[in-house]
Amino acid sequence: MKKVVFSTAFRGTIALAFVITVFGCTQQAPPPEEEVKQEIVDAPAPVDEPPAAASAEEEEKDAVADTPVPEEEEPLAVAEPSGEEVVIMLPGDVPLVLTHVPAGVYRRGRTPNEQDSMEREEPRHQVTLTQDFYMGKYPVTQAQWEAVMDSWPAAPPSEEYGASDDHPAYFVSWEDAQAFIAALNAHISETDQGPATVRLPTEAEWEYACRAGTITRFYWGDDPDYREIDEHAWYLGNEDTAMPVGLKTPNAWGLHDMSGNTFEWCQDWYDTYPSGPVTDPTGPDAGSFRVGRGGAWHRGALFCRSAFRGSFAPDVRQNYLGFRVAR
Fold first, then answer.
1. 147-155 long-range contacts, Cβ below 8 Å, gap at least 24?
2. Phi, psi of 65 (to 5 degrees)
3. How many distinct structural domains can be found in the chain?
């Protein structure tokens, strides 16, 4: 594997309240029409919250059941990644590793009749990504956050929810992630680590990288009885805090913790998907909520599916919300 190194320079107690925005499920309960309440967990100051809607238990009951069984879907041809990794050295010689993701075409959203899926993951549509990119091999860790930012924007990580150098950073809002990225890009420039800058991945890039060429519910397969998930993801069934990154089996492209551990911010505003094919989509121009992907340690297995979409107010901080960078 070729590496390019530019030199110099995560349930002891589950949060008091948490509900991510999930609506439009299709089993027996009608979908909620308002955005789901977002509540801060242990943050020092309150933020504006959208109206309350379905509880987490109701969300799990709202899984899809009775949709027609379609013809088997054929996977699209997907390029293979090169295996190249880029290592950015942070202050204190803390490495941040990004992995090559090839340009390609895939179908975004739930498959027809996908078990435990939700209407908000429709319509399924074709996405073309015309440029290769690099994706963080792991979520940004607490050591990486502290190396770049020195301090935490609000409540710091705690032993209650998982704390160590290798745990994912959490209690960071979308806005906080942008501040981290700005500081990191300044550091890259100041230390002559190349002209390229890092950013949050788009939602389209995130799902593409998560799937890694698969069309199954999870990147390891459909797993209808949830018997394989423990090998691949931290979720409500096997852990009660965030866990150190990289302990579970990665996807086929070498990316770790794309399912479970912490939800991950994407760059996009949240909205319904387009109805037809799109190329290099970046989401709507404006909105009230930002996209979060991947599931988390405090949620059930169905939230770890590759197609699942969460949405959060951009200033919300939670003990299950983190991010990874792209370039």
1. 147/90, 147/91, 147/92, 147/94, 148/90, 148/91, 148/180, 148/183, 148/184, 148/187, 149/179, 149/180, 149/183, 153/179, 153/317, 154/43, 154/44, 154/45, 154/317, 155/42, 155/43, 155/44, 155/317
2. -130, -55
3. 1
Residue 243 exposed, middle or buried by CB count within 10 Å (0-12, 13-18, 19+): buried
Average predicted confidence (pLDDT) for the chain? 83
Domain that holds residue 216: 1-10+71-327
Residue 105, in any domain of the structure = yes
Grouping H, G, I as helix, E, B as strand and the rest as coil, residue 88 is: strand
Residue 35: inside a domain, yes or no?
no
Burial 51-73 (b: 16+ CB within 10 A, else e): eebbebeebbebbbeeeeeeeee
Q: What is the pLDDT of residues 28-70, one digit of tens each?
A: 333 333 333 343 333 333 333 333 333 333 344 444 433 333 4
The tens digit of pLDDT for each residue in 144-194 reads 999 999 999 999 999 999 999 999 999 999 999 999 999 999 999 999 998
Residue 173 lies in a domain: yes
Tell me the CATH number at 189: 3.90.1580.10
Q: Is residue 44 part of a domain?
A: no
**pTM (2 d.p.):** 0.80
